[in-house]
Amino acid sequence: MFANNVSSKWYKNQTRTGNAHVAKRAKWSLCAQVLFTRKELPITFGVHTADTKKSSHSIRWMTMSGIFQKSCEHMDEVPAESVALVVTSPPYWNAIDYEQHVSDPTAWYRTRRGGTYEEYLDWLRVCFAEVFHKLKPGGFCAVIIGTILNERKQYPLPQHLVTTMEELGYEFHEDIVWSKVTGGVKRAGVTIQHPFPGYYCPNIMTENILVFRKPGPRIYAEQTSDEKERSKYDINSIFTREVANNIWHIAPVPPNYLPHPCPFPEEIPYRLIMLYSYVGDAVLDPFNGIGTTTKVAHALERDYFGYELQQKYVQVALQRLDEPLRLRDQLIPVYEKVPVTDSPYQRSLENHKRKRGQMTLFETTREAQEEYTADTPDRCDYDALKKQATWLRRKKQPMVISPDLDGVLSALLLHHLWKWELVGFYDASTLWLLKEYGNLDATKPTFVDHDIYRKHLPSIGHHMLKWGKDTPIPECEGPDAQSFNPNLIRGFTLKEFGRKYPFGTFHLLLACYGAWGDLKDYRPSRDFIPLLIQVDSSLQSAFTYEKNALEWLEWLGGSDDERSPIYPLCKALAAASSKRLLRWQAQLGDQIQALGFTRHSQCKTDNPTDREQWQRLQKLLAWLEELTGWTADFPDFPDAKVVRTDIRRASCKPTKTNFVKVVAEKPFSYALISKTEQGLNYGHLP
Ligand SMILES: C[S@@+](CC[C@H](N)C(=O)[O-])C[C@H]1O[C@@H](n2cnc3c(N)ncnc32)[C@H](O)[C@@H]1O
Predict the structure, then answer these.
(1) Which of 1, 452, 510, 579 could staple 459 via S-S, CB 3.0–4.6 A?
(2) Distance (Å) of CA 490 to CA 369, 373, 412
(3) Is the shortest distance between the CB of 69 and ligand 1 below 6 Å?
(4) Which domains does the chain possess?
């Protein structure tokens, strides 16, 4: 930590005052040369002074500091290779007439006199060559500089200076951006008046703090641990949230606050001196102005050298050495996501992203989802569901599945967890049952991926079932109903068709078993994700029912619970661009095709008793077993062992009258598949 009353904290107000340096300055002007020649002598041969630094060191060195009214082109007063750090801001080409400012600060001093830009660069080269000569090997040179505007042209001075400095032998070390936050050159008015391409003139709110290094040993290499400790700075929240980043937010010195047209704020040399020099080191500002660098260097117990042409500025700089540091409260940016309310802009951005396939699904839907979340429960009550559908966790149930990817995957899961046995297939037109299960009333198999309207036949499906909230479904609702359907659970009806569950039976089962702890140790592999977006065309549904896709996943608890087995689906849908999702799906399509199904299909089987189709189904099962790590044993479904029942299918317009009539006829299964013409589909047993 710093000794005395100099703090190593970032921006604690400094109160150091004293007279030692005043005496020293007086002595300096008389015998500067003598003091310099003695500089290299250890204190045993030299002169003790009140300002002697590095007290922990057995060999002590003379203090040397001074502010000179002369050009920095020849800094003869500074010994070669004696300066550890330069902090400076050169005059900006022809921007300010300092002489004019000194003689009458109220008159116009932004006069733009002087030579060409190239001549200015050559002059900077001369000054920084002299600085290079004075810098210690390994020492730093921080130059605060910005682009120059002259006659509607921008001159990239920082970029040009880097080239110049490298040519002089400096190494480029760091580029820190000084964000002026409240200040800067305001130009955007032009753009606001002419909002057309080509008129863009942003406000210039930054300057660069270019840090160069003279090649040589690291500055900490020769410091003892005590010396390091003395110069140590605090790692506090100001450091981690601001100084640690290479964008520094520091308001400029307000106009007319100090008697110089463009002093830099004390915070800048304060940070640089703390970061790039040790107590007792010499800090130089070759363009010292009113001495901000020399003031801060002195306060931080560094030696200081300053060069300045204008006598008035030198006088102020000397006075300022006595003043306490004026470090202001720190500005730290806080970032907040702000929805873009300018809708034409948002729309064009969305269209652009959509066209390029860059948009994630939920970027397109977020706004719409907000409409929905207000009046719906946030989360599924899994405890209540567990009590309601105890049969979902019963062992060795016979099951009838849909002959497609959703059905087979669900069957695989149910067999893996509860040893459920496959006894039949149902595709809403035909029912294939192993003969011994042919009597549904007696064997009561569970229908998976279907909604069945028989109280004694448990089923798990996900179609829209209710016409309206006040229109009951006798066989499916009520305390002893065995139907498990997410739309029924949430009370969604045809009237709110857009809120329909957009995923598969498999997702629903995964979410439930995940929440009930039955899949505790199961970790899906990466290959699982494409499968999750493929099952029951979930990706397409998520886009079609984009308004409620995220909301459903949130309800299922998969969007924020990393342990949920459907979390990977949520993550993929929320984070991957549509292009990427489609690519995954295409890759999966290749695999599906290799199994003998069409690329974009749901691996449907028209007739499981057909040998060829059955073998293809077995291949599908084997592939899914490999992907999931689960195993299932499906029996053969040869014609001879199967009872085939054709279901009498029909459809009609989904009006209330039709709905009530169809339900009263006790169909075997039905679904409200759309609000349009033939939206009510149903099937009767013969
Ligand atoms: C951008 S100002 C620096 C302000 C300074 N950082 C401060 O906080 O007060 C540049 C200064 O360089 C001075 N200057 C111009 N030519 C110079 C030269 N050849 N040698 C030394 N100083 C010079 C100007 O008078 C001006 O005060």
Answers:
(1) 452
(2) 16, 13, 27
(3) no
(4) 20-320 (3.40.50.150), 356-684 (no CATH)
Closest to 329 measured CA to CA, from 16, 6, 7, 11: 11
Q: What is the CB neighbour count within 10 angstroms for residue 571?
A: 15
90 C-alpha to ligand 1 centroid (Å):
6
- Which DSSP letter does residue 203 get? -
User: Using a 6 Å cutoff on CB, does residue 310 contact ligand 1?
Assistant: yes
Which stretch of 5-19, 463-477, 535-549, 639-653 has the lowest confidence by average pLDDT? 5-19
- Between 376 and 628, whose confidence is greater? 628
Ligand 1 atom having least distance to the Cα of 291? 9
Mean pLDDT of 562-573: 78
Q: H helices of 522-599, where?
A: 528-534, 538-544, 546-556, 567-575, 578-594
Q: Which atom of ligand 1 is nearest to the CA of 127?
A: 19
Residue nearest to atom 3 of ligand 1 (CA): 289
- 169 Cα: distance to centroid of ligand 1 (angstroms): 23
Distance of CA 30 to the CA centre of its chain: 60
Q: Is 237 exposed, middle or buried (0-12, 13-18, 19+ CB in 10 A)?
A: exposed
Q: Which token pair is 649?
A: 């299918």
Q: Which residue's CA is the nearest one to ligand 1's atom 27?
A: 289
Question: What is the whole-number distance in angstroms between the Cα of residue 290 and the centre of ligand 1?
Answer: 8
Averaged pLDDT for residues 482-492: 88
Q: Please, which contacts does 334-343 make with residues 24 or more away whose CB atoms are closer than 8 Å?
A: 339/367
Which of 301 and 152 is assigned the larger pLDDT? 301
Q: How far is 211 from 142, CA to CA, in rounded Å?
A: 4
Give the H/E segment covering residue 319: helix 311-320
Distance CA 420, CA 411 (A): 8
Whether 98 is in the pocket of ligand 1, judged by its Cβ within 6 Å, is: yes
pTM of the model: 0.52
Cβ(61)–Cβ(54) below 8 Å: yes
Gap from CA of 148 to ligand 1 centroid (Å): 16
Look at residue 310 and tell me whether its pLDDT is greater than 70: yes
- By the 8 A CB rule, do 260 and 317 touch? no
74 — pLDDT class (breaks 50, 70, 90): very high
Cβ burial, residue 429 (10 Å; 0-12/13-18/19+): exposed
- Say if ligand 1 is within 6 A of residue 487 CB: no
User: Does the Cβ of 294 fall within 6 Å of ligand 1?
Assistant: no
> How far apart are the CA of 88 and the centre of ligand 1, in A?
8
Mutation pick for ligand 1 pocket among 97, 288, 320 (CB with most ligand atoms within 8 Å): 288
* 516 CB burial (10 A radius; 0-12, 13-18, 19+): middle
CB 279 within 8 A of CB 336: no
- Return the half-sphere exposure (C-beta side, CA atoms, 13 A cut-off) of residue 354: 12
